User: Fold these one by one.
Assistant:
Number 1:
Amino acid sequence: EPEVTQTPSHQVTQMGQEVILRCVPISNHLYFYWYRQILGQKVEFLVSFYNNEISEKSEIFDDQFSVERPDGSNFTLKIRSTKLEDSAMYFCASKVNPEDRPFFGPGTRLTVL
Amino acid sequence: AQTVTQSQPEMSVQEAETVTLSCTYDTSENNYYLFWYKQPPSRQMILVIRQEAYKQQNATENRFSVNFQKAAKSFSLKISDSQLGDTAMYFCAFMRSLTGNTGKLIFGQGTTLQVKP
């Protein structure tokens, strides 16, 4: 079965540094998402992306965050200047159409020191 | 705005017994989807079951079944014949079904389930 993949599995960074989290969605999928889960808490929606633009974003997704689909296969989440509170698990998800269930990647654990 | 509530932060069950996890949600919409996801210690998000609100029949997947009460906005998950591998965090999630919707999920706070030998 096709899978969503994410790299790296674990990223450690210093506060104030930029990080880029990478995702490769399933190849025929058109809708892409990033979710965040702070340890022990619920999974929170960050942003949805369709047709090369953001279709919806949450209040968490402020100016420090950006997303991009640079080459038709990768889908990236950039955090411009990381804060301690950005430490979390970040999940990428994709689907063919909005009514489908999302296929989640394995997540990237981000640790900000 | 839609909200999802899981009122049981932690539950435990003996192996081979049955357990029910609760979920309630709030929406003014008539059509939507509901999901249960399992998150084991690896933190992978694994789909357990999905229910379409327009279907009256409760969804089942092997040992997993739901009790969907649309009027009460309740969506509980029943796990029968619990196995040690069912130990995980379980999230209930809501998704709108409207033209133009982005397909995002709204999650509850999660219930940590421990299956005891």
Number 2:
Amino acid sequence: DIVMTQSPDSLAVSLGERATINCKSSQSVLSSSNNKNYLAWYQQKPGQPPTLLIYWASTRQSGVPDRISGSGSGTDFTLTISSLEAEDVAVYYCQQYSTTPFTFGPGTKVDIK
Amino acid sequence: EVQLVESGGGLVQPGGSLRLSCAASGFTFSGHLMDWVRQDPGRGLVWVARINTDGSTTIYADSVKGRFTISRDNAKNTLYLQMNSLRAEDTAVYYCAREFFGSGRRDFDYWGQGTLVTVSS
């Protein structure tokens, strides 16, 4: 199974400041057939289901604000919120969909400092 | 509007059974692979099972293999999860999730609100 890890476990950022979350997979999720990274990011607010933010590691889902971006390739990925807003308070998960079992990172909680 | 509505959760004793349903609407259900994902209390997300569009192929996490069965009724636009031999560690919120169709993507672009399963005596 591909093991996903995230860092940090939690972070507190001032409004308007940058938040950076790291995700690492135990093996590459980059496909040689289409040169795409099978990596997604989800946001989960308290009491709600997860919502898709990013797929293919860096493509923003429709409706996701452009202050949220994804980057990385192979085994190392980053989710960046360029200017934190109050509505961004949530837990963020990365997920690999390269092979089953699909696996998620443990999550990173983002709060306001 | 895409909607996924789970039902069937509740309190069940260890060793018991439960059947979850996920009613889909607002999209062509038969055109999408579907999955169940669970979230342990206070913990993260764990993928449980996946089914292809016509129900002929299913895949399970090792932790539920042989105990859980995923199925679908495309005529009723409904996804199911039959859970047998339930254990305390199966306690979780269970979400149904739709896989995006096309381009080789397999991320979950829509999720239901979830249904809570509690396994306890």
Number 3:
Amino acid sequence: SSELTQDPSVSVALGQTVRITCQGDSLRSYYASWYQQKPGQAPVLVIYGKNKRPSGIPDRFSGSSSGNTASLTITGAQAEDEADYYCHSRDSSGNHLVFGGGTKLTVL
Amino acid sequence: QVQLQESGPGLVKPSETLSLTCTVSSGSISSYYWSWIRQPPGKGLEWIGYIYYSGSTNYNPSLKSRVTISVDTSKIRFSLRLSSVTAADTAVYYCARTSREWATIAGYYYYMDLWGKGTTVTVSS
């Protein structure tokens, strides 16, 4: 099991807001980054640092953190947001990197 | 525009060594970390390790005894070797450019801002 824990699946109605969470002790000390992966494609970075979006990522994606939990929020989810989402950070020792188990987002 | 491309054998026999290369096109390998990540069929992402352009490395503890990552700055590519493979090493292998930034309240953090398309490696006799 991963040091970063994610819910296996989450669903959201089209146009509504959804929060995907990632829990882990290391998140008290280090920022998480978030990746979107659609079937058959490579992951794409959507959020990194405190709440930074790479060029080309819609502003409906945002990130936040509190205690041992990092969150990815999609405000006004679109059909094209249906994908797997992975969090990533340093592990509890701080010496290595680790991914969360991933969350499958379904847009209804 | 910088692009990453993985290459290497798609089929490796059990107990042999898996070797992959990631070529960085239209860019520099300097000032970045370069990671390998894999994804077994139907499963999540697993970080294998990274190399800094200067040559320093960091490996996933669970794979450390079998992994070697090297860099060839002159040819702008980096490589992965994974020894003594088993069926459990069957996966899509990705290379990714990895950045490290400093945050005053959170120390250094890493993120992978550019990924290759991935290459499928099957371990089978």
